[in-house]
Amino acid sequence: MANNILIVAEGRDGNLRKVSYELVTVAREMAQGLGGAVEAVVVGNNVGACAEALAKTGVTKVYHAEVGLPHFTPEVYAATLADVIRQTQSAVILFGATGYGKELGAQVAAKLDLGLATDCTGFQVEGGALIFKRPVYAGKALATVKAKTLPVMASMRPNIFPPAPAEAASAPVEKVPVANVSPRAQVVEKVKKEAVAVDLAEAKIVVSGGRGAKSTEGFAPIHALAKTLGAAVGASRAAVDAGWIDYSTQVGQTGKTVAPQLYIALGISGAIQHLAGMSSSKVIVAVNKDPDAPIFKVADYGIVADMFDVLPVMHEEIKKVQSQP
Predict the structure, then answer these.
(1) What pLDDT score was predicted for residue 137?
(2) Are 173 and 55 in contact (CB under 8 A)?
(3) Within 13 Å, how many C-alpha atoms sit on residue 262's CB side?
(4) Superfamily of 200-323 according to CATH
(5) Is 286 helix (H, G, I), strand (E, B) or coil?
(6) What is the pLDDT of residues 244-262, one digit of tens each?
(7) Domain residue ranges in the chain
(8) Counting Cβ atoms within 10 Å, is residue 12 exposed (0-12), middle (13-18) or buried (19+)?
(9) High-pLDDT (> 90) share of the chain, %
(10) CATH superfamily ID and name for 5-175
(11) Rounded Cα gap, residues 42 and 49, in angstroms
């Protein structure tokens, strides 16, 4: 068996999600140690454009399975992916540690009786063996997981590795059949949440609020600042648990991992679980009343003050800069 690596790409609304490009970077680095080729598979409805985009990232081949069902159907997707993996006999199969990847990775691993290392943040190749790093105990420690044999599966946390550019010559795209599986459940209705202006997981700027926001109303100036900056709104677990803002905005070990160019933390103390989800940000600005708050240990710029005193001034100064020619 050649030590080929297979990326399971993720499409949404006809577009590849950023994590798919990040997996290409992971696979390329992994292939340098294992010596295999990098291939990819995309399964879904109307994902032809996703397959074409993936083919330009430098992979050697793309497998395209057009499911033709309007809604995500895990049983069909997992069975189709299992068939592709049997066909390719890949040594490593990579998923994104997203809702999509977590749902399908476990099912495919069970179907193929393969080991699965989940939510990995790093890896290395030693003597032909793969060793993964993954956070445990809510990010308080890192576990080292060694794959005893190949093939092996792994899900990689988003926003850890840089996305690969789609600038290479197009690789061949092979259409593969969809597994003949009858789903045991049927989606009768899909209700979308109110669309957000900027996707938190892929935002270049994130403005987050924490316990210091004090209430739902306290998040109003945070939303206003984010709108001015063209940023996504994030939150700490404390703010989410208090019901001040939706869970989809939670940044941290049990929420989303972000790595924006700029992360503004307002009224967030910086529990280790939160830091695990945002410490890879390029520039971190923190505002907190407590001078000993852990957030200041990772911040590039810190302001010891009440966020409600700082926010209006910060917002006005940003608008002044934006109005300059």
Answers:
(1) 76
(2) yes
(3) 11
(4) TPP-binding domain (3.40.50.1220)
(5) strand
(6) 999 989 998 878 889 899 9
(7) 5-175, 200-323
(8) middle
(9) 67
(10) HUPs (3.40.50.620)
(11) 10
DSSP-derived letter for residue 151 is: S
pTM (predicted TM-score):
0.79
Q: For residues 159 and 132, what is the distance between their CA atoms, to the nearest angstrom? A: 16
Q: Which residues contact 39 (CB under 8 A, 6 or more apart)?
A: 4, 5, 6, 7, 59, 60, 61, 62, 63, 88, 90
Indicate the range of 53-67, 123-137, 303-317 predicted with least confidence.
Answer: 123-137
Query: And the tokens for 212?
Result: 């210091």
pLDDT given for residue 312 in this prediction? 95
- The 3-state DSSP composition of the chain as helix, strand, coil percent (nearest 5) reads 35, 25, 40
Q: What are 267's two structure tokens?
A: 């009224």
With CA atoms as reference, report the closest residue to 263 among 254, 253, 247, 274: 274
pLDDT tens digits, 93-140 = 999 999 899 999 999 999 999 999 999 989 999 888 899 999 887 667
Q: Fold identical between 5-175 and 200-323? A: yes
20: pLDDT strictly greater than 90? yes
> In 3D, which of 59, 152, 121, 47 has the Cα closest to residue 279?
121
| Contact call for residues 67 and 77 (beta carbons, < 8 A) | yes
Residue 155 identity (one-letter amino acid): S
Token readout for 50 is 């996703």
For residue 54, how far is the Cα from the chain centroid?
17
Span 79-100, average pLDDT = 94
Taking CA 137 as the corner, what is the angle to CA 200 and CA 251, rounded to the nearest 5 degrees?
15
Three-class secondary structure of residue 156 per DSSP: strand
Q: Euclidean distance between the first and final Cα of the chain, in Å? A: 60
Which runs of consecutive H residues, i.e. helices, occur in 57-98?
A: 74-88
The pLDDT-based confidence of 84 (bands split at 50, 70, 90) is very high
For residue 156, the one-letter residue type is M
Q: Which helix (H) or strand (E) holds 155?
A: strand 152-156
Mean pLDDT of the chain: 91
